[in-house]
Amino acid sequence: MSTEPFERLLWQQLAARGAVQGEFTPALRMPWPIRLLMGAAGWLGALFAQLFLLGSVFAVTRGNGPAIAITGLLMIGAAILMYRTTSQDSARIALGQFALAASLGGQGMVIVGVGESLGIDRLSQTAVFWLGVTALEAVLFVIVPNRLHRFVAVTGGWSAATIALYIALGGSMRNPFLMMPLTVGLLGVLAMAAVMVFVLNEARIAARGTHALWEPAADATLVFGLSSALIITGTALPSEFLFDGIRHLQTPGNWVPGVLVGVCLVGFAQIEGARIRCDAGIRIGLMVLAVAFSGLMVMAPAVTAGVLALAMALRRASLPWIGLAIAAILLGFIWYYSTLQWTLLVKSVTLAAAGVLLLAARLALTRMPRKEAIA
Q1: CA geometry: angle at 306 spanning 341 and 192, to 5°?
Q2: How many whole angstroms separate alpha carbon 127 and alpha carbon 164?
Q3: What average pLDDT does the chain have?
Q4: In this structure, is residue 51 part of a structural domain?
């Protein structure tokens, strides 16, 4: 669906306010099938190039960790140069995907090379190693000027930080699920809080000219936060058929992430109420609704995180964020309803009460004064 009519209407509204000048010029966009084919061509070319390169390097430098790491750094450097190369749109798409594949391969070679040098079996069991991976992803996030690469780097950084925290807290691979509320859950809450900070300060970030830098980080952080909430919601699934010695994954403290995500939801509701100048009664009502809903869904933090993501998405009018939020809410409800440690009566009452609260929230929102609020 073309967005040109909406862009033209927005331009006319901004021009009427005096915010922009001149005639609207529609942006030329390449059809998505062509972009898909060019991206696939880039990955295919990168696959063959890296198979040849990796085969040559590992054949010559087998067991030579420093040589493997240096080759990986050279691949990352080549990827950065490709990202900074300007060309036509079709070539830029293919070159960008080639560069992404080269960068990911280079990162893997750096990690393997360092591990070969210091003992990969021993090193991978330390938090310092995974913190180093996090630092590598942070550096690449800053120096590589590409939105998709920054998204991947932030995702990798959050994942490596999760493993580092798990090891630092004394977790073992024998039973990693017992540590999930303190690792995946807490970092997921931290991620949702970071996204909330971005949304609340997005106007200032754009005014400083750093929006292109931090927006992909916010996208990746939101995906990580929602995924973490889904994982915590799903740790109660019966899995004794898949994992020996683990029955229903009764993880200690699995209520903590739900409580903390609820705190974020209450805080965001209050901040938004103040921003759009709601009266005190409406703000108190929103706070009561947010507290009650978070309390009901404390064992399904994915639903609360999805509602928070939906509120943030509506503030910044982001369709991709709205899709992610709705998917998290639906999957969170489905996953919660699929658990077996709760009775059907408890789940039915919880879901019915959540529905009543949502209807009450809708009634409260329809009674709010309709006026434009500019942040």
Answers
A1: 105
A2: 4
A3: 78
A4: no
Rounded to the nearest 5 percent, the helix, strand and coil shares of the chain are 75, 0, 25
Instruction: List the one residue out of 116, 106, 108 whose CA is nearest residue 64.
Output: 116
Contact 268, 312 (CB under 8 A): yes
Asked if residue 114 lies in contact with residue 83, where contact means CB atoms within 8 angstroms, the answer is no
Query: Could you list the residue range(s) of the whole structural domain that residue 337 is in?
Result: 180-367
How far apart, in whole angstroms, are the C-alpha atoms of residue 301 and residue 305? 6
The model's pLDDT over 177-233, given as tens digits with 9 standing for 90+, comes to 677 778 888 999 999 999 999 999 998 998 888 888 899 999 999 999 999 999 888
> Which residue reads 């696939």 in tokens?
40
State the average pLDDT over residues 144-170: 88
**Domain membership flag for residue 327:** yes
CA distances from 338 to 285, 348, 375 (A): 31, 12, 41
Tell me what pLDDT residue 40 has: 63
For the chain, the farthest-separated pair of C-alpha atoms sits apart, in whole angstroms, at 73
CA 327/CA 335 separation, integer angstroms: 12
Torsion, Cα of 83, 89, 90, 94 (10° steps): 10
CA distance 113 to 118: 9
Q: What is the pTM of this model?
A: 0.77
Neighbour count for residue 92 (Cβ, 10 Å): 18
| Number of domains within the chain | 1
128 is a domain residue: no
**Which two tokens mark 28?**
């030329």
Out of 26-40, 60-74, 150-164, give the one with best mean pLDDT.
150-164
Q: How many helices (H) and strands (E) does the chain have?
A: 15, 0
**Using CA atoms, how far apart are residues 233 and 301, in angstroms rounded to an integer?**
6
Assess contact for 98 and 82: CB atoms under 8 A: yes
Token readout for 326 is: 């709705």
As a whole number of angstroms, the distance between CA 127 and CA 137 comes to 15
For position 334, what pLDDT does the model report?
83
- Residue 231, both tokens: 């994982």
284 located within any domain: yes
